[in-house]
Every structure is written in C-alpha cells, then in structure tokens.
Amino acid sequence: MLNYLKENFTNIFEDALIEEIIEVGTLKEVKEGEKLIEIGDYVRSMPLLISGAIKILREDEDGDELLLYFLERGDTCAMTLTCCLGQTKSEIRAVAELDTTLIMIPIQKMEEWTGKYKSWRNFVFQSYHERLTEMLETIDSIAFYNMDERLVKYLQNKKKVTNDSLINSTHQEIAYELHTSRVVVSRLLKKLESLGKIELYRNSIKIVSL
Amino acid sequence: MLNYLKENFTNIFEDALIEEIIEVGTLKEVKEGEKLIEIGDYVRSMPLLISGAIKILREDEDGDELLLYFLERGDTCAMTLTCCLGQTKSEIRAVAELDTTLIMIPIQKMEEWTGKYKSWRNFVFQSYHERLTEMLETIDSIAFYNMDERLVKYLQNKKKVTNDSLINSTHQEIAYELHTSRVVVSRLLKKLESLGKIELYRNSIKIVSL
DNA sequence: GTTAAAGTGTAACTTTTGTTACTGCCAAAC
DNA sequence: GTTTGGCAGTAACAAAAGTTACACTTTAAC
C-alpha cells in the first residue's frame, strides 16, 4: 500500500498523513463490472483510486441510466465525501469500468483529517472542484449537444479512460449510458462508420479517427 | 451585520467565527437583474447570502444560457469556493434573481478558517453537498424529462424562490433559462393555460395549481 | 447439429422539439 | 394621436429523437 500511495499521492499528501492512511486504510480490488455503490446505500468508507476506472451513473424513475463521469487514478468520489459527512444516502451508482484497485478509508477519519492536515483539505477541495467541473461538462453535453455529438464525446472519453481505441461495448450498453435507445445508437454509429471514423464489429467498436 | 449573521447563521457558526466574519466581511446589496459573476472572471471573495436569491447560469458556445439552480438565504456559492482555492476562472454566471443582500468574505480567510473552525468546515461541506444535489436535479430534468415537464418544474421553482405565484417573466426570458425557443415556451404555456393550471398575462404568469 | 439468445442493420412511422414567418396587441416614446 | 418596439399567438414546416417491427448473423447452450 505504501508503494501505491507514494506512486499516486506523493506531493499531494504529507508524510504523516500517508502513514495514517496506511494504518487505517484497507486495500480493495474490484473486477470490471462489479458494483461498488448502489443508489440508496449508506456509505461507510471513502475510496482513493490507485488504478483502473470507475463509472458514476444516475438513474431515472424507470430504472434507466445515465453516465455522469469516470473516476480515474488519483481521484476520489465527491458524492461519497458528502454522503459520509451528511449521513445521507447515495444519489448515484458506482460501477467498475475496468479492474480497479482502491484504498478504502473509514469515514471517521475524514472529519479528523480535514482539521489536521492541510494537504488532505486541499485534496478534498480539489476533488470537489474536479467533480463539479465534470458535472458541468455532463450538463453541457446533454443540454447543448445533439445525440450524434454526445456519442462522439462518449467514444472519445471511453478511449481515454480505457487507454484503448478498441471499445468493447454493445450498442445496447452505449444506449443505456447515454440514456437513449439501441436503434438510435446503431443508426448514428453506422453514420460514423460510413464517414470512416470508426469500424464496427460484433461487441466492439474500433476508433479510427475521432 | 451582526444581526444578519445571528438571524441566518447562528447554530451554524461558532461565536468566535461570527466575530471574525464581522471583522473582515463587507455587506453588499445587489438589485434584481444585477450581474455578480461572469464566466471567465477570477473570483476574489466569497458570498454568504443573507436575503434574496441568486440564479446560477451556464452558457453554450453561442452565448445561450441554461439555468442551473438558485441560491437562497443561508447558501453560499460552491463554484466560488473551488475557484478561490484553485485560482481558476469562473465556469458560471451569477445574476441576482431578486434584490439581494450578501456578506462578502475575502478569499484569504477561506483557507485559514477551514483549518481553524469546525463549524466553517461543516458549512463548506454542507454547501458542496447541496450544490452537487442541485446539479443532479438539473441533470435529471434535462436528461429524463420532456420540455413540458421541465417548464412546470421551472414555474414551481420560480414560485418557491420568489415566494409569489405571479411570475414576472416574458416567454423569451423563460426560453433562455430553459435553453429552448420562445415559440416552444408559448406553445406549452398555452397548453397549461387551457388545462386551467396557469393564467397568462402580458409579462407575467399566474400560477393557479401546478 | 440444433436451438436459443443476443447483437446488429434497417425501414417505416410517431412524437417531440426547433424554426420561420406572419399576425395582432399593448405600452412607452415622440 | 401616431409611431415604434417588444410581446404573444399560431400555422406550417423541418429536424432530431424515439418506437415498433422484422430480418439476419453470431455465439453460446443443449
């Protein structure tokens, strides 16, 4: 755990804080597709992301989803922060996008460390800032762009997060995350293919130039 | 200022903190329609809302707007918090929805107080939580609901914030805030009127039962 | 090998939303 | 009083997105 922390959070956390994290934190590994938090859950610990990626989803009345954003190496979950402190239920679902390694920190430490360590405070505020910014980008996408542009952004984002220009998703899965229908996704993907920007295969999409 | 603070933030802030706020804070009054923050501005002080209401807006490439949420009595601007700490430009525009009274706090104090006062930390985290929740509600509206439902929510929200069932807005103004066109708003308002839920006048809308 | 299930392609159609254009009305300015 | 500009109503049309239906292919299960 020490190595993980040094690699990912050195220059961010003070040495004394790193020691404390090692004392109380527990290492957790989750497989791709595994659910970390469900809507309505009470959250009892806070994740620090070491490697992999986690997608954060919102759900509508019918149980359909919308992808909000991804968490990556060095990130933490801002929702969890507020849930921990406010003792409220989770408003979102968190699912591993890739095989992921996390350090879980008990929520009692949250409050203590925000008083004690300046580096922790900065980290927490920085996280809030990043998450708010990502929420704004999500709002921009939904409110200001058409589905074809949203699809392109989605594919670009997915490529960045997985670091792979071959995207292993079905049209149905993409439709869920964009909160639209499979037929619409197929239609728009076909158009992108005919423009030479992607190549379509069963269960996967190759990004050529987006 | 002492009275304002006692009325709105007692039980929230420690006495020592209230004293400090009085020392360094300045009272500010803004008229309805007045702009407080523009996109791209660097923010140098943090507002505590004493009375009135402020609307927070996002802008697209063409300069068209989208209403994100309102700030009310006892609120502060989460965007400002992160902007102050991160020294980044504002991502949003803030405009007074009503005549509004604020206490402005220099940003230098932010960092100091988060270390010093537990009540201040709680207030800041609470603010983040509320703003994140409101952003989620905004996302729900845009992503999951049709324009007719969004319009109803908008009218309900406006009634709540202004505490007045007579809404003094033109169709064009509503269209801007919902990021749609005037014709669409007129069409949907007319439908609501024919259902007996509202009454339409020039420059205003009376909410009967929504 | 046969069957079943999941994934994709596509046509035809509906609904929702956005656009253009034109009308009349009201209120402030002259 | 007349003019002017902003506001609202509405029709007609276009574009975007969602829906239904069905064909065909691939893969997994039996």
Describe this structure as you would to a colleague.
Chains A, B: It comes from Aequorivita lipolytica. Chains A, B: Keywords: DNA-binding, Transcription, Transcription regulation. Two copies of one chain form a homodimer. The first copy, chain A, is of the alpha+beta class. Chain A has two domains: 143 residues, Sandwich (Jelly Rolls), CATH 2.60.120.10; 61 residues, Winged helix-like DNA-binding domain superfamily/Winged helix DNA-binding domain (Arc Repressor Mutant, subunit A). Chain A has eight helices and ten strands. Chain A has a four-stranded antiparallel sheet. A three-stranded antiparallel sheet of chain A has the order 1-7-3. In chain A, strands 8-10-9 form a three-stranded antiparallel sheet. In chain A, a hairpin with a 5-residue loop joins strand 4 and strand 5. In chain A, helix 4 packs across helix 5 and helix 7 crosses helix 8. The model of chain A has no long low-confidence stretch (mean pLDDT 93). Chains A and B meet through helix 3 and helix 5 of A and helix 3 and helix 5 of B.
Brief sketch in words of this structure:
Two copies of one chain form a homodimer. With 210 residues, the first copy, chain A, is α+β, with helices and mostly antiparallel strands.
